[in-house]
Amino acid sequence: MPASTSPATPAPIEHLLGLYRMMARVRAFENAAEETSRGGVAVFGSTADTVALVRGPLHLSTGQEAVAAGVCANLARSDYLTSTHRGHGHTLAKGADATMMMCELFGRASGTNQGKGGSMHIADFSVGMLGANGVVAAGIPIAVGAAHSAKIRGSNSIVACFFGDGAINRGPFLEGLNWAKIFDLPVLFVCEDNRYSATTATDAMTAGAGAAVRARSMDIAAETVDGNDVLAVDRVARELVARIRAGGGPQFLHALTYRLKGHVSVDPATYREQSEVDGALASDPLKIAAQQLAALGVAAGRLAGIDAEAHAEIEAALAVARGAPWPQVDAAYTDVQDTGRGQWH
Amino acid sequence: MALISYAQAACQALAEAMRSDPRVIALGEDVGHGGIFGQYRGLRQEFGAARIIDTPISEATIMGAAVGMALTGLRPVVEMRVVDFALCAIDEIVNQAAKNRYMFGGQGRVPLVARLPIGIWSGSAAQHSQSLEAWFAHIPGLVVVAPATPADNCELLEAAIACDDPVIYMEHKELWGLKGEVPAQRTATLGTARIACPGADLTLVTWSKLVHTAVEAAAQAARQGISVEVIDLRTLWPWDRDMVLASAARTGRLLVAHEAVQAAGFGAEIAATVAEELGIPVKRVGAPRVPVGYARTLEDVARLSAEELLQELKRFVERDPRRQTQA
């Protein structure tokens, strides 16, 4: 690849450093969320510890950072994104502010959702992030509708629709892909395949060859990529996004990755072999990117600096979130509905 | 003033909204062909396929896509054909459309109208005949409307399309052909009931097709010396507490009648509220808790006739201990 002066295609080293930086921020965010959630959810008969800062189920994307970073690097702020219950990485990579996100996880009034959604429903409409969703595959029809809307309104926005491998066994997956194809909509479907549907291996629950084949059966072009290789994700996503922007209709990216943590933060994930986890740790997306950068001659100290910056950013976010105000009780009654406001019984 | 049908009235409301606001679109199965009840007739010709959108039989995605459209600047009108089919889209209605604004801290609004026709539709049996309005009235975030007349089906549909909240709009499948006047001046608003006929001895609250049955029963009751005030609730959530409480306070008795199954129906909510607030006798009448059967004899078990309603309200008035004391 010739050295480019176009801002759209930055020099390879700088571009990869940017992707690495985003992954490092997501990793730092997930680690901090995990740490501050300890004791925050009732599990196996125990009661939730009320002192935990992050309450309830926390679905970590640790190990899946390359998919979020690689795809979102190819989106503009005006593009839309729908996400899943495991959505912190997508949200951060789409441009949301880490401090407001952490405030949301802490349930504070200054959070992205004013403390009303938490981890599972994190959203930042100001950057086109239309919401994480607590229902598997539920974001797919919403994404398709946002794309249909863009087409009707004559907008140039496209939509990136993230979902997991478990989602391909739900009806809205079939319905949504069919809809996007027949209406020729600008959607990038991203199946973030971490191999587990909650605590059950997806393979055993899935007939046929899986996500990409199902997409192709509806005449939607599908690419499978190593979802732990951020450069590969970025390269394929760039190609698919370019096709969508050129009017090529929906495209499908099947990214193979691995969920390094359990289904939720308190899940020890003892249902999988340690050798499987060890293998996944060896192909940790941050490690792979670090190796690629080393091969390009980037000094280890530079990556350590990026890691330290990410850590500092998240530490600062934690400090703000710890001191942030709780929602007032009155807020329970706001943003419900305007028609009949005040009639609660 | 010309008489137009309940279906034409809705068509007129949608056409006017689409003329005045390019953000208004409609989507659903068969809408391009005018809809299976004729409630979209002529709209494809005027507004084109991009705004009157024929969809696959994909209820979840029809509703979910409408949520995505509403979040990004459109005002979709969603056709679900019958409420029974909307059960295939219950996640999209309850978890997505109704929750979005609150759950995301007010970042987005979901200004959509979901048309979920209710009611027994002669000979259509168990999966095309339900009245499930209470399900939706139970869900915070939703407005629930059930128009009884052509005038209301025009005015309330217009109001629903103009509303920034998600509206569950429940027409009745046996009212499509009902003719009536539709005044040029719009007076109906969401959340406001109307007195279908005034009376002094008993307040009878109902909605949708049963309003007509109730008015007929009230006319018969009047001939037998019982003066019944019929309130057409029009909107189930928010329901017009002020009008119902004022009427019930005046008459001293409340009867709620609905076509839906009586058990856990919305009539229970109204009756309980009136009993709590006024301490007067209350009574509910609804369908037995059985599916709607196909044969006429079975279907009629689920229908409430004017004669049955008359008997119910007479029994209610006659059993009232205060009346016995007076006698």
Explain what this protein looks like in three dimensions.
The complex is a heterodimer of chains A (345) and B (327). Chain A contains 11 helices and 7 strands. Chain A is α/β, with parallel strands linked by helices and 345 residues long. Chain A has one domain: Thiamin diphosphate (ThDP)-binding fold, Pyr/PP domains (Rossmann fold). In chain A, strand 6, helix 8 and strand 7 form a beta-alpha-beta unit. The N terminus of chain A is likely disordered. Chain B has 2 domains: 179 residues, Rossmann fold; 133 residues, Rossmann fold (3-Layer(aba) Sandwich), CATH 3.40.50.920. Chain B is an alpha/beta fold. In chain B, helix 1 runs parallel beside helix 8 and helix 9 crosses helix 13. At the A-B interface, helix 5 and helix 6 of A face helix 3, helix 5 and helix 6 of B.
Strands in their spatial order, largest beta sheet of chain B: 3-2-4-5-7-6-12
For the record, give the distance between the C-alpha atoms at the N and C termini of chain A, rounded to a whole number.
66 Å
Shape descriptor of chain B reads: globular
Q: Which class do the helix and strand fractions of chain B yield?
A: alpha/beta
The count of helical stretches of chain A stands at: 11
**Could you describe the largest sheet of chain A, including whether it forms a barrel?**
5 strands, parallel
Helix content of chain A: 40-55%
Q: Which band does the percent of strand residues of chain B land in?
A: 15-25%
Q: How many separate structural domains of chain B?
A: 2
Q: Strand order, biggest sheet of chain A?
A: 1-2-3-7-6
What's the helix count of chain B? Answer: 14
CATH class of the largest domain in chain B: Alpha Beta
Net shape of chain A: globular
Strand content of chain A: 5-15%
Backbone CA Rg of chain A: 20 Å
The H-and-E topology of chain A, N to C, reads as HHEHHHEHEEEHEHEHHH
